[in-house]
Amino acid sequence: MPPAKKRTRRYDPAKTRAAVLAQFGHVRHAVRTLTPEQLGRPTRLGDWTVRELVVHLTMSLGMLERRLAAVEPLKQEVALLDRPFTTASEADQVSDTVKELAASVDDLDALFEERAARTAELFATTADDRLLPTRSGAMTFADALVTWTVELTVRTDDLNDALPELGVPYGPQALAACVRLLADALAVKAPGGSVEVRVPPYAVVQCVAGPKHTRGTPPNVVETDPLTWVRLATGRIGWAEALDAAKVAASGERADLAAVLPVMP
Predict the structure, then answer these.
(1) Angle formed by the axes of helices 13-31 and 172-189, nearest 10°
(2) d(Cα 43, Cα 34) in Å, to the nearest integer?
(3) Is the pLDDT of residue 167 over 60?
(4) What domains can you pick out in the chain, each with its CATH number?
(5) Inter-residue contact 134 to 5 (CB < 8 Å)
(6) Tell me: the pLDDT tens digits for 196-243?
(7) If we measure between CA atoms, which residue out of 183, 177, 180, 181 comes closest to residue 196?
């Protein structure tokens, strides 16, 4: 696991709570409109259907209640910037559980309503520094909130990819936190100062070993929009594909991130 940076970006827990609930609400509203045909459509997530994708979102937030019910760990073991590098090892276990739950759920709207209400209650009563056990180690509740903005934003994009007619909105606060965490994770994975990565209006980071830029116009610049960055960072789109589609502007001989993407597969 790459080491976390010594200085981690600060996130406002109250805003992050609101962002998670708002993004879950956007998805919940869309799910209410889905037909059986739409629920059965394939997604870009291997053999998951739309039904399994949306059920996964309720499971993701449902883990909070189970973790809060467990004995609180004695010390923090996972920093926020460690988390993007631990998700791949959990994917198979998650997939099997999702399929089992999706097959047993009859009323998706009721499932979403129950999860939204319970999550709001837990958000209102849990301290920011409360430690949660996770598969990769104990982390604070405030840090877990930020990781949920990534989960919800990425899964919303997966849903929009499978059902483009839905147009599920991306809450700006959730999208901002997601972009910033993934950009900071890139700087951890590829430390250095030779390339400046810009994702306006949310993030600017320097990365990749080599001559460090200190002032003036950086010699190596990569710039893209928030959703393209999220897709690049999570492997939804490849570097060459994004360049060919003019979704990324890259200038300078070192401005090639193909070797360090995705950040969070």
Answers:
(1) 110
(2) 15
(3) yes
(4) 13-175 (1.20.120.450), 190-260 (3.30.1050.40)
(5) no
(6) 999 999 999 999 987 766 666 778 999 999 999 999 999 999 999 999
(7) 183
How distant, in Å, are the alpha carbons of 76, 92, 141, 240 from that of 85?
17, 15, 18, 23
What is the average pLDDT value for the chain, to the nearest integer? 90
Long-range contacts of 205-208 (CB under 8 A, 24+ apart): 207/260, 208/254, 208/257, 208/260
User: Tens digits of per-residue pLDDT, 98-145?
Assistant: 877 777 888 999 999 999 999 999 999 999 999 999 888 999 999 999
The answer to whether the CB of 19 falls within 8 A of the CB of 174 is yes
Report the distance separating Cα 76 and Cα 151, nearest Å.
21
Q: What is the pLDDT of residue 85?
A: 83
Write down the pTM of the prediction. 0.92
pLDDT band at 1 (very low <50, low <70, confident <90, very high): very low
Tokens 């827990």 sit on residue? 13
CB atoms under 10 Å from CB of 124, counted, come to 8
Q: Flag whether pLDDT at 89 surpasses 60.
A: no
Residue 131 neighbours by CB distance under 10 Å: 23
Residue 254 has a pLDDT of 87
